[in-house]
Design brief:
Radius of gyration: 19 Å
Mean pLDDT: 88
Structural class: mainly alpha
Distance between the termini: 23 Å
Shape: globular
Number of strands: 6
Number of domains: 3
Largest sheet: 3 strands, parallel
Strand order of the largest sheet: 1-3-6
CATH class of the largest domain: Alpha Beta
Strand content: 5-15%
Length: 194
């Protein structure tokens, strides 16, 4: 309900010219993993939306760019900053400053996407990755995402302390106990999110 009401509020902002707010997912605090399956052009706001996802996979027909500088504008949803966090700065700055488009193979080579597949197998591959993630302990998956987003800027001692705290929170969870038991019994775990 919060997300729905929040998006309705954003629609009102969009009518007032703040349409880029519709692409900004940062304040929704979505702790479930998000996968972008990119097939075709992923330019400007499309790339900014994909950069907010935890994983990006692409078909061989995909291409990527932040072309805003070509029309005397800037990526308005933090695209340049997100790109700098996703790939090495030399590649990010080249893309942001030139506005040039890169193909899917280049995106894979520089780490913008994690997987490359044929267009016909893009969605099945995205679903297969999602299924592998969903088979893991849901509390642990959400905590990994939370730690990754909230502690990336911290020093090693600080993020280690946060990781240890998270480990302690999950240590006695029913899912962790089930995971360790299932491992010992050489069977698939039955996680419940507890």
């Amino acid at each position: 309900i919060f997300a729905r009401n929040h998006l309705l509020g954003r629609e009102a902002e969009a009518l007032d010219g703040g349409y880029t707010r519709l692409l900004d997912l940062s304040d929704l605090q979505i702790w479930k993993p998000m996968i972008a399956a990119v097939n075709g052009y992923c330019l400007g706001g499309g790339l900014e939306l994909a950069l907010q996802c935890d994983l990006r996979i692409a078909s061989t027909s995909a291409s990527f760019a932040l072309p805003e500088v070509k029309v005397a504008s800037v990526p308005a949803v933090g695209g340049a900053q997100a790109l700098l966090r996703a790939i090495p700065s030399a590649h990010a700055m080249k893309m942001a400053l030139t506005g040039d488009r890169i193909d899917a193979q280049t995106a894979l080579d520089i780490g913008l996407v994690s997987d490359l597949t044929d267009p016909e197998t893009l969605l099945p591959e995205a679903r297969a990755i999602a299924a592998r993630i969903a088979a893991n302990g849901p509390l642990a998956v959400q905590m990994v995402k939370k730690l990754s987003q909230e502690t990336a800027h911290l020093s090693p001692p600080e993020f280690m302390a946060q990781s240890n705290t998270a480990w302690g929170l999950l240590r006695d969870s029913a899912d962790r106990i089930e995971g360790r038991t299932a491992f010992g019994e050489k069977r698939a775990p039955n996680f419940t999110g507890n």
